[in-house]
Write a structure and sequence with these properties.
The structure holds 2 protein chains of 2 kinds.
Chain A lengths: L6 H9 L5 H19 L2 E4 L1 H16 L10 E5 L26 H8 L3 E6 L39 H8 L5 E6 L5 H7 L2 E4 L19 E6 L2 H11 L17 H4 L8 E5 L9 H16 L3 E5 L7 H16 L17 H12 L2 H14 L5 H24 L2 E5 L15 H5 L6 H6 L3 E8 L5 E8 L4 H15 L12
Parallel strand pairs in A: 2-3, 2-4, 7-8, 7-9
Antiparallel strand pairs in A: 1-3, 4-6, 5-6, 5-10, 9-11, 10-11
Helix pairs in contact in A: 2-3, 5-6, 10-12, 10-13
Chain B lengths: L4 H10 L6 H18 L34 H5 L5 E2 L2 E2 L7
Antiparallel strand pairs in B: 1-2
The chains are: A alpha/beta, B mainly alpha.
Chain lengths: 492, 95
């Protein structure tokens, strides 16, 4: 099946002309046609654009101009602005929005020859861990519980559509964004590799902003090498993003072949909570064993402020969101609701255009930034954030990378954890630290739980040292030998 | 610190989000539960700690203060809910 190939395999076969880029794109478009009505992974499928791009890829291959991703079909999280293709952020308020410009990350993927299949579903404005807050409906996880195949599981979030699309073989890879875990947690829930690079590694220009100091674009793939190929294309300095880092992009694919001999791998003791399911604890130990067998040294380390990470995040992220989302006022773009006066028009537009979770976070953000409360909440959170960064810096004095579980559970069912926002927020317990500190992290599929659902392990590295993170991830991938497949997939 | 409905009304107005009267009470409950959970940050000793504003551990680059983009009003106005000529149009503000 063409849809089962990895990006690395398809790249070679396209260059050898074993099949055409149009063949490869059509195989994926047919898979989308067959499965998307059920999975709801795509909000918009750009069928004719994809075929045009595939034809151009074939022409480029015919003249020997093959680039890193020529002819590779990808899915784009509907948070990246794509010129001429509607970009909704899974919100009612952006239902009519067609960007007149292309985000830097997607422009770089197109520069390298990629084919875009369409725009994937997400939690509204990337605020969520289940894809349940999308105004365009929930996404079904293509994985099923062995004993309970009727249960509809969530793909995780916020990049749930991207994860479901890549897991179900509707796309060879996808873009995501990760503000508190929104690439790594869905990667863990869907048996994928999810890469959150260092802050500043991938440009945020043209990505609908949620929390600017925490938002990280990054890729989803089915192998660590494919993740390396995609990040290599997405990364790089962009003058249009003032926080974009002007540092060279190394060869991430080469880093995957480095091995881990002599590396020191840290195990943060604060991540070992009493409530951790035994299966996840066991898988974590197994993963550390693989690294020990491959010649790494396992070292106990401390990140003393771990338990304050989520509370810090739920001040900083809503504060930045309340500011970023102020732009949706029904004046320059997006859906408008009428009002007798200008102030009514604003209030009605934003009440109708934002869903419950987005409204909740804007209100929290407005409150923690308001006069009289700024010091008690926002300033204090920024200071705790500094202590969390110091924890990581101290740990990285002793070790080259950290290894932890990605999420505190496997995929849960639609409707679970919906009654209490805090229960949903706890999904990001292990991932949020890397966002607050801006350090790179990858989730890899490491094993299955008793229900046959995938569980991920996370590798966290030093700032701008994605290479070590890829080296450790690739070693663990080899040892894990993860070959399980989701029940719902193209040709499955 | 506990939010009452008057405070909810005030922050909703600051955030320009219309909230119906009967929604104030449920919202207050939800937000208080989240804020209560956040209060754990008060345990942390932050004396002498400099606040961290962003994820980038580097100084921002300087650039020349010049216009590098623009000159396409039709593209900018293409998404406007309402327009008048080359302007965005809104409900009347001043009688």
């Amino acid at each position: 099946m063409l849809t089962d190939l990895t990006i690395a395999e398809a790249r070679e076969k396209l260059r050898a002309r074993e099949f055409s880029a149009v063949d490869l794109t059509m195989a994926h478009l047919h898979a989308i046609e067959a499965l998307n009505p059920r999975l709801n992974a795509f909000i918009t499928v750009s069928h004719s654009q994809a075929v045009d791009q595939a034809r151009q890829a074939d022409a480029a291959l015919a003249r020997g101009d093959a680039r890193a991703l020529t002819g590779i079909p990808l899915a784009i999280k509907d948070l990246f602005c794509t010129v001429g293709v509607r970009t909704t952020a899974a919100s009612e308020i952006l239902r009519p929005f067609v960007p007149p410009y292309e985000s830097t990350v997607t422009a770089q993927l197109l520069r390298d020859g990629a084919v875009f299949l369409g725009k994937t579903n997400l939690d509204e404005f990337a605020m969520g861990s289940s894809n349940m807050t999308s105004a365009y409906g929930p996404v079904e996880n293509p994985w099923k519980r062995l004993q309970d195949e009727d249960a509809v599981l969530v793909p995780g979030g916020s990049s749930g559509g991207s994860a479901a699309a890549v897991a179900a073989r509707l796309s060879m890879g996808a873009t995501g964004t990760d503000t508190g875990g929104s690439i790594r947690q869905p990667a863990s829930f869907c048996g994928l590799v999810g890469v959150k690079p260092s802050y500043g590694r991938c440009s945020r220009w043209g990505v609908v902003a949620f929390a600017s100091s925490l938002d990280h674009p990054g890729p989803f793939a089915r192998t660590v090498q494919d993740g390396a190929i995609l990040l290599g294309s997405m990364a790089g300095h962009d003058p249009k993003d003032s926080t974009s880092a002007d540092v060279p992009v190394p060869d991430y694919e080469a880093a995957c072949r480095r091995g881990v001999k002599g590396l020191r791998i840290g195990v943060p003791r604060e991540y070992r909570s009493d409530g951790m399911p035994a299966e996840i604890e066991a898988l974590w130990q197994k993963g550390l064993g693989w690294l020990r067998d491959a010649g790494a040294e396992i070292v106990d380390v401390s990140l003393p402020h771990t338990k304050y990470g989520l509370a810090t995040y739920y001040i900083v992220a809503p504060a930045e969101a309340s500011s970023n989302l102020a732009r949706y006022d029904g004046v320059r773009y997006g859906a408008r609701q009428d009002g007798a006066e200008l102030s009514d028009m604003y209030g009605n537009t934003r009440a109708a255009g934002f869903g419950a979770e987005v409204r909740r976070r804007i209100l929290i953000g407005t409150y923690v930034l308001s006069a009289g409360y700024y010091d008690a909440y926002y300033l204090r959170a920024q200071k705790v954030r500094a202590l969390i960064l110091k924890d990581f810096n101290d740990a990285f004095q002793q070790v080259d990378a950290l290894v932890t579980p990605t999420a505190p559970s496997a995929a849960f069912a639609q409707g679970e954890k919906m009654d209490d926002p805090i229960q949903m927020y706890l999904n990001d317990l292990f991932t949020v630290g890397a966002n607050l500190a801006g350090v790179p992290a990858i989730s890899i599929p490491a094993g299955l739980d008793a229900n046959g659902l995938p569980l991920g392990l996370q590798i966290i590295g030093k700032p701008f040292d994605e290479e070590t993170v890829f080296a450790v991830a690739a070693e663990m991938e080899r040892a894990a030998g993860f070959t399980a497949l989701p029940q719902l997939r193209a040709g499955g | 610190m506990s939010l009452d409905t008057a405070t909810i009304r005030r922050i909703a107005s600051l955030a320009r989000i219309t909230v119906a009267e009967d929604q104030l009470e449920p919202l207050a409950l939800e937000l208080n539960s989240i804020l209560g959970w956040i209060e754990r940050l008060n345990e942390v000793n932050v004396d002498g700690v400099e606040p961290l504003t962003g994820g980038a551990q580097m100084a921002m680059k300087m650039r020349d203060d010049v216009v590098t983009d623009g000159g396409y009003p039709e593209k900018i106005l293409a998404n406007a809910p309402d327009r008048a000529g080359q302007f965005f149009a809104v409900p009347k503000v001043v009688e």
